[in-house]
C-alpha cells in the first residue's frame, strides 16, 4: 500500500498585476508505506507547495493527493499524519509540554497517553530540561525540535516533514537523522524535504529531485550512488612496497589480472564515486527534457 500518492499536481500563485507564479507542473510520485523518501530541490523548487497540498493546507490547481488510499481532505487520513511545517512557530506563552498536550488533545488522546507520550518525545528531542519553560525563551533549534516533537506525539504512521534539519546545529541534525532512521525501523513512513544532499544519502531509501516546479527524477539512493561509480582505487603490495592505483570503471577486471600477473597482492579495492551532490547538480543544471 502506498502511504502517499501524488497525481498530476499543478499549482500557480497569483503574481504581479494579473500574472501568475507557476510553482508546480504536473508532479506525480508515490511513497510506499515504510519508506523514507527525500524530496530534494533548490530554493523555490516547489517543495513546500507540494507539502502544503499533501497536508490539505493548499488546494492544487489540478491533480490530487491520497494518503493511505484516502483523499487528503478527509479527517481520517489526517489522523495518521504528523506534520512539521517549514519555520514552525507556536503559542509562545505555553510551555513545550503544554503545547504537546494541546496537540495531543486535538488528536483525541486521553490524559494518560498525553502525559506519557509527551515525556517520551520531549526526552527523544532532548527537550526534557526545557519542557516546563515558556516557548518564548526557546532558541531557534529548540523550536525546531519542538516542531518535530509535536509531529510525533500522537505516534502517526506517516511523517511529512518540511526541512526537518533546518536551523539545527550538527548535534541536532545528527539527532533528527537518528530519529528518522528509528521511525523507519518501527515501520513508519517519512516524506521529508531538504536542499542538503548529504541528508538524503544517510537516511533515505529513495529520492525525488524537484527543480523549477517539475519532478526531474525519482530513484533509489542505492541506484544513484551505484550508477555514480566512475572508477576504483586499488591498493596493492608488491616487492615489499605499497602502491595505490586509480582505474577507470570499465577497466577494473583487466587491470586486476595484469596486476596479479606481476605478483602484486591486492590489499583493497574501493569505488570512486560521484556523490549525491554531484548527481543533484547535474540533474538541476539540465533542461526539464534532459538536454543541457
Ligand atoms: N504564497 C505565495 N505567493 C506567491 N508565490 C509563492 C507563494 N509561495 C510560494 N511561491 C512561489 O512558488 C515557488 C515555489 O515555492 P516553494 O516555497 O514551494 O519552494 P521550496 O522548494 O519550498 O523553496 P525553499 O527551499 O526556499 O523553501 C517559488 O517561485 C515561490 O516564490
From TrEMBL:
Matching SMART domains: AAA
GO molecular function: ATP binding
Name listed for the protein in its UniProt record: ABC transporter ATP-binding protein
Keyword Amino-acid biosynthesis: no
Highest taxon, organism lineage: Bacteria
Keyword line: ATP-binding, Nucleotide-binding, Transport
Residue ranges constituting the ABC transporter domain according to the UniProt record: 4-237
Amino acid at each position: 500500500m502506498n502511504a502517499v500518492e501524488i497525481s498530476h499536481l499543478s499549482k500557480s500563485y497569483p503574481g504581479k498585476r494579473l500574472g501568475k507564479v507557476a510553482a508546480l507542473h504536473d508532479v506525480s510520485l508515490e511513497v510506499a508505506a515504510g519508506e523514507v523518501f527525500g524530496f530534494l530541490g533548490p530554493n523555490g523548487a516547489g517543495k513546500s507547495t507540494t507539502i502544503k497540498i499533501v497536508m490539505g493546507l493548499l488546494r492544487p490547481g489540478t491533480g490530487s493527493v491520497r494518503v493511505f488510499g484516502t483523499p487528503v481532505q478527509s479527517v481520517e487520513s489526517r489522523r495518521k499524519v504528523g506534520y512539521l511545517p517549514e519555520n514552525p512557530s507556536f503559542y509562545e506563552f505555553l510551555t513545550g509540554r503544554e503545547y504537546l498536550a494541546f496537540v495531543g488533545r486535538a488528536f483525541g488522546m486521553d490524559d494518560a497517553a498525553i502525559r506519557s507520550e509527551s515525556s517520551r518525545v520531549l526526552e527523544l528531542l532532548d527537550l526534557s530540561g526545557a519542557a516546563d519553560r515558556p516557548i518564548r525563551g526557546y532558541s531557534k533549534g529548540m523550536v525546531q525540535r519542538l516542531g518535530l516533537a509535536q509531529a510525533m506525539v500522537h505516534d502517526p504512521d506517516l511523517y511529512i516533514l518540511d526541512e526537518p534539519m533546518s536551523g539545527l546545529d550538527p548535534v541536532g541534525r545528527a539527532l533528527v537523522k537518528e530519529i528518522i532512521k528509528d521511525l523507519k525501523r518501527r515501520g513508519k513512513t517519512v516524506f521529508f524535504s531538504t536542499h542538503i544532499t548529504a541528508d538524503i544519502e544517510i537516511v533515505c531509501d529513495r529520492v525525488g529531485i524537484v527543480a523549477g516546479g517539475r519532478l526531474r527524477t525519482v530513484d533509489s539512493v542505492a541506484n544513484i550512488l551505484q550508477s555514480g561509480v566512475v572508477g576504483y582505487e586499488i591498493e596493492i603490495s608488491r616487492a615489499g612496497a605499497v602502491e595505490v592505483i586509480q582505474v577507470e570503471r570499465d577497466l577494473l577486471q583487466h587491470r586486476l589480472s595484469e596486476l596479479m600477473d606481476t605478483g602484486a597482492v591486492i590489499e583493497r579495492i574501493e569505488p570512486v564515486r560521484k556523490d549525491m551532490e554531484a548527481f543533484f547538480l547535474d540533474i538541476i543544471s539540465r533542461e526539464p527534457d534532459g538536454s543541457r
